[in-house]
Design brief:
26% helix, 4 domains, HSP40/DNAj peptide-binding domain, alpha+beta
Length: 386
């Protein structure tokens, strides 16, 4: 992963104000509402937000400066566990620190000093959707029920009784804001605030629709069909354009962001498209060799355990992993052999084991597991890079 300072384009001595300014510039450049759902832009938006969220926090920044990414993601010296940062988190961070102006203001839709008159886009909706590892392997379709704002049937979305159209606000003259001048020791101070009468829209409805109290929208429920592609991971998201809540005054619908969360499967650990599992075997199976069944994400298959297989050896099942998202092929499944030692023996078993003890050779000073020698995780790393 790229260096956080490099992502924001700042030096390691940057102060809090410099970090915030650098992030705001990138966030506005790559925000999804400005880039029409472009995946590359959304990825850069998330990347910049993650860097900002770490560097703006003195504790996380200190841990990052000392230990790198491991320091803020649960590794050595971790600063509280910065795990699972996804696109929805990035949107929340942006709106938390810069959402007070409204997205229309930030992206220039309002214009400097102008009112947000006319139709407005409806609010976006964020949902979390859990999928199983089996659904990741095949892809799936989910149907969701979600609460949305729909156009008021009584007024057709105008907000006015009997179809009455909004008129210019008399308080602000259509500007959508009011200016107040106060005298102080420093001279005249002018404050600009949204108009309290029209709430910044510049227009008001004289006779409000009784069905929606002039809002033009009412609470409703929608059914959404979500196509989840194979190979997704936790934190991936699906954007459903124009399927969110209806905008006020006849504005277009907002979007729906479906953030995916892959449920853990106790049988497997996952690394991208590859999966890892453990296969317990008896001493005789490891010593004499055996052909055994092993679980896969989508069922079972057989694996050959060679005579003399040591506990901890890793065997590879090519193509039994997960599909690669937006790429061809599948990952592999790595099977770690674990020799099972019984904790209790029957009298007959104990007799035979003692007989074996009389003829077996002494254990060597070091066990050679073959080409997978070394610690378990080093062997996993070797297997993944093979």
């Amino acid at each position: 992963m790229r260096d956080y300072y490099e992502i924001l384009g700042i030096g390691r001595d940057a102060d809090a104000d410099g970090i915030k300014k650098a992030y705001r510039k990138l966030a506005l450049q790559y925000h999804p509402d400005r880039n029409g759902g472009d995946k590359e832009a959304e990825g850069k938006f998330k990347e910049a937000t993650e860097a900002y969220e770490v560097l703006k926090d003195p504790t996380k920044r200190s841990a990052y400066d000392r230990f790198g990414h491991a320091g803020v993601k649960g590794g050595a010296g971790g600063a509280g566990g910065f795990r699972g940062f996804d696109f929805s988190d990035a949107l929340e961070v942006f709106m938390r620190d810069f959402g007070g102006f409204g997205l229309d203001d930030l992206f220039g839709a309002r214009g400097r000093g102008g009112a947000r008159t006319g139709p407005r886009k409806g609010p976006d909706i964020r949902l979390r959707l859990q999928v199983t590892l089996q659904e990741v392997a095949t892809g799936t379709e989910k149907t969701l029920r979600v609460r949305v704002l729909d156009p008021c049937e009584r007024c057709g979305g105008s907000g006015g009784a009997d179809g009455a159209e909004p008129v210019t606000c008399s308080t602000c003259g259509g500007a959508g804001e009011v200016r107040r001048v106060q005298r102080s020791m420093l001279g005249q101070l002018m404050s600009v605030t949204p108009c309290p009468t029209c709430r910044g829209e510049g227009r008001v409805v004289d006779r409000l629709c009784e069905g929606c109290d002039g809002e033009g929208v009412k609470a409703g429920e929608a059914t959404l069909d979500v196509q989840v592609p194979a190979g997704v991971s936790t934190g991936d998201y699906i954007t459903l354009r124009g399927q969110g809540s209806q905008g006020s005054r006849g504005g277009v619908r907002g979007d729906v962001y479906v953030v995916l969360e892959v449920q853990e499967d106790p049988r497997f650990a996952r690394d991208g498209a590859d999966v890892i599992c453990e296969l317990p075997v008896t001493f005789t199976q490891a010593a004499l060799g055996a052909r055994l069944e092993v679980p896969t994400v989508l069922g079972q298959t057989e694996i050959e355990v060679e005579p003399g297989t040591q506990s901890g050896r890793i065997l590879r099942l090519r193509g039994e992993g997960l599909p690669r998202l937006q790429a061809a092929g599948r990952g592999d499944q790595l099977v770690r052999i674990v020799v099972w030692v019984p904790t209790e023996l029957t009298p007959e078993q104990e007799k035979r084991v003692r007989a074996l003890a009389e003829v077996e050779a002494a254990a060597p000073e070091r066990v050679d597991s073959g080409r997978e020698g070394g610690g378990f995780w080093s062997r996993v790393k070797q297997a993944f890079s093979a």
